[in-house]
Fold each of these.
Amino acid sequence: MASTPVSPAHRRKILRVIFISLLLDLISFTFILPLFPRLLEFYRSREAADASPHSLLNRILLGLNAYKQSFSRTISDRYDVVLLGGALGSLFSMLQAIASPFIGSLSDRYGRRTALLWSMAGNIASVALWLAATDFRTFLASRVVGGLSEGNVQLATAMAADISNAEQRAATMAMVGACFSIAFTFGPALGAALATVQTVAANPFATAAGVSLLLILIETLYLYLYLPETLPSYRMSQPADVSVSTSTTRAKATSRTNSYLLLNTTHFIFILFFSGMEFSLPFMTYDLFAYTSSQTGKLLGFMGLLASILQGGVTRRLNPLLAIQIGVTACAASLFLLGRLTTEAGLWIAAGLLAITTSTVVTGLNTLSSFEAAEAERGGKLGNHRSWGQAGRALGPLLFCSLYWWAGREAAYGIGAAGMLGVSGLVFGALKAPPITSESQ
């Protein structure tokens, strides 16, 4: 359904606010990613010094070790902390899968701006807990609060759809995707640099946490001062007509090109395989080429930089279905190559293909999903769409790494490539471009 028209000047203003705020949010979010191994080593050594075998962290580590020892292959102890980081990542994604539909529905009922500001309050609490986390329990609480409250990405997507017509939608969604690529290119490096500056003896990561909190506070103030409501005024001013408006627009949406079951299933299966591969990449580069964390970081930085260039220059001009088709094809080729490569040159070629995937698939799926949702239900529908993807992200690393350790690299990436070919079957055989995008392209 077409969005309520807004003037070009007003639209540019809102897009600027969305871009700046989302970039601040994602840079703050990515600070912690390269710090996980050192963070968890810090908490493990701290609890070992306290001689508390029944502590929460020690019980979790015992469970992970029992899981690791169930495989026939010997798995190095250096992966203990990586496994724990993966478990925390899966927990965060699963909490996001639970919370996203509720956050989206609240934005439909009370407005995007209100929902986003409440989400920011949760983000502030989460980062404040990290700043104060001198023990693992407090750090875990910060991840739980963050997982349940983080709604910036889905609400930014909904707001971008609110103010974009069919011709503008793909370019607008590519802008949201570019924020991810830029943040994941520079945020982790900045977080790692800040972690070398120690300001609080009880928490050596307080500097990184403090700057992350400062960015979140600046973002919240910026949103409060400059973000207008993007939900159409009739939806905000006529709550009594919610059931009529929603049922009418839902009837129109279900007559559109792609069902939400198809879009959500495609999103889930794609993220399931892609996130599993993504999480296993540091294991593979270490096993095959003895890469250090710095070398792996350069590889990931190359992927992020290339993806941001592609999103800004190519993806924004593509029909969303074509973008998805290109992305899943590149991903299948990359997984096939990763299972058989023997040289570093092959690794960097595979990374380039994954950058193409990163810059296209999720952006295209979000665009198609936004076309199928009416204005009155867009927040909830996009929240459900994100929920399916986050569920895949919660399960993918566990399943893929289990397969990697049980059957080996060749089998794991071969099955991943076969799974991505299955996703390609859905994308090429079932998904269709909405008529309005076909006409506009």
Amino acid sequence: MASTTVVIDIPVERTSQQHPNTSSSDPIPLRDRSNQNQVTFGDFGEGTGAAVDALERWNYPRINIYRLAAIFFAFLNFGMNDGSYGALVPYIEADYDLSYTVTSLVFLSPFAGYTVAALFSDRLHLFFGRRGIALLAPSCKVIAYVVIATHPPYPAVVAILALAGLGNGLVDAAWNAWIGGLAQTNQLLGLLHGLYGLGATIAPLISTSMITKASLGWWTFFYLMAALCALEVATGSAAFWSETGTKYTDVNRVNGEEKGMTRQALKQKVTWICAGFLLCYVGLEVSLGGWIVNFMIRVRHGEPFSSGMTATGFWLGITVGRVILGFVTAKIGERLAVSVYVLIAVGCELMFWLVPQFIVSAVAVSLLGFFIGPIFPSTVIAVTKLLPSEMHVAAIGFSAAIGGGGAAL
């Protein structure tokens, strides 16, 4: 964050006895530490005084507006990456003449990149700051997408997807942690993950149209992804250019401590509980989004284009759910909200499975997306509330990596 100093004069009615070292015109400094501003009030009378922490807002300091826009764009690209797999899997399988098991390696490979991101995300923040993450993460994805766009042999596709997973893992940990430290975090994380859902919604529509309507190869979709991520490099680095490693260390380490945040985060029970929860959640989300098209074609006997649109419906449900239900979650609390969402989602899953009709399955999977959508951002909020700010990147990165393991499974 850009360091800020704000001087506020507050008229205060004083008693006849005043502290000898204060006067009625004493300023009140606002000192920035990470996303928190500590507002310290002087002694307003004999033996009185207070100190409170005020979180930064999405629009204060003003640079946060541009940073939030850059992060939203990054998560749009992130969602397009994840949402495209489901629509592309049938065509990748046919192109390379693969079995289900071998095709599923496209989900396993990014997990390796996520794991590397979880282990080194905190260290990268210390050395290069958020500016380094804004440069490195999308650059990894640009390289991966350019290679895939050349239509290489399948083993090369699997291998290079690990690099895309590394980029997405860094994005996931860094920007969730940053927004988690702002005021109105429920609403902002709902919008952030809503943008992820929007990207995942439009990706099947675009990729399916390119293949079925324009008769293009499945790999041509990654030319678009490479261009978008190149733009992400420019927008992210410009917004976070002042966020160096030195600055990150100054505001996120207590008493100058620079090591061991990943290790310390792994000692916290909260980290493991959230990681286990995301293992199940992301496994459900990616399994549905990744295999729904194949299921609708082969089991529900749908047409390729209409089956591809069921993936769009699922991700659209996630998008709308995260935006709308994010405000509901803020009102009733994460624990109660997630419990209710999970129960309703179980009902939608049963309807999807037990009623063997294409239309019913398409509607059920959209409703399922709507109610599971807010679960991921709610979990991130729980981490940011229960752990100190210096552990946020490490804890969220590790939890997201374990969630990626659910996708691989």
